[in-house]
Amino acid sequence: MKVLITGGAGFIGSTIASAFAERGITPVVLDSLITGRQEFTEGKIFYQGDIGDGVLVDQIFQAHPDIAVTVHCAALIVVPDSMTDPERYYRVNLTKTLDLAGHLLRNGCERMIFASTAGMYRPEPDLSVSETSALDPQNPYTRSKMMAELLLEDLSRAHGLRVISLRYLNPIGADPRLRTGLQNSKPTHALGKMIESYENGVAFTITGTGWDTRDGTAIRDYIHVWDIARAFCEAAARFDAIVPPVQPAGRTGYEVVNLGTGDGTTVRELVTAFREVVGDGFQAVDAPARPGDVVGAFVRPDKAWELLGWKPEYTIEDAIRHSLQWAERRRRSAA
Ligand SMILES: O=c1ccn([C@@H]2O[C@H](COP(=O)(O)OP(=O)(O)O[C@H]3O[C@H](CO)[C@H](O)[C@H](O)[C@H]3O)[C@@H](O)[C@H]2O)c(=O)[nH]1
Question: Where is the NAD-dependent epimerase/dehydratase domain positioned along the sequence (predicted)?
């Protein structure tokens, strides 16, 4: 059995590919390499190209008729970029998802696991989100993901596409065996900036200390990328039980499952966890919030446990350790 992974040369897609391979399911990677990395495809079946390219997708299925499920990760994912160039985000994340779905159906591949975002929810007053929380996406990136989900749900009703959409927030860490990790060598996210500060021997700046959270700093639901990859594998393994080929009355072939820790991590808690890993010398200073920052949210994972038997296994400290090891490896290979 094989799995087609779009965006399989990216941070999350490449980790998912390794997780499937470890379970004896051969990944077939389709990636444009616009942001993905060629070296993340080494040793894997790899096609360079666009998810909207029907001829290429047909070729892939002719060569690999045993592809049983598609994991659709290919997307643009940078929120600020989506605000300055929304057309590109809608074209890639929405229109090309529509094209891809048509190509998959034409080739008889009706199972899709969609990499989505829990950023489309309006957080409850306690900042949690669950599958029943209202949708209220705040930027073109999260809107493009929500619209892509709506169109996939319509295709499931009309054409028998079956979809499990996994929604999560901030992936961190790296493949524990350090095959792959974050591609971006200049990340702007909190853990990336922490690693940069640590490596440069300067204090980390906590941007935003006046939020209504347990310690005043913003909250996120950081999950180890390997835990996310495991959830995709569980979704594939249980696909037909979760979304059966024939739907019971009143059901569509579309299921949403959120992935999260259930309590999240504030920026100060992330700093504390970082100190646990690197030692007490690591300093942090307070500063005003970044423009456009939000208080954040955390994800209740009850449904993931019920349907996928999944909950995160790695701690935040594990994820920090793996991120540091990956940063070190990348630096050495660049030297
Ligand atoms: O040097 C820093 C960097 C960030 N933060 C704070 O840490 C929190 C989390 O910020 P991140 O940038 O890590 O996470 P966001 O969820 O705000 O956004 C990031 O993660 C998203 C994924 O969910 C998108 O990829 C987005 O483009 C990317 O910036 C925020 O309060 C931020 O102000 C700091 O305190 N110091």
Answer: 3-244
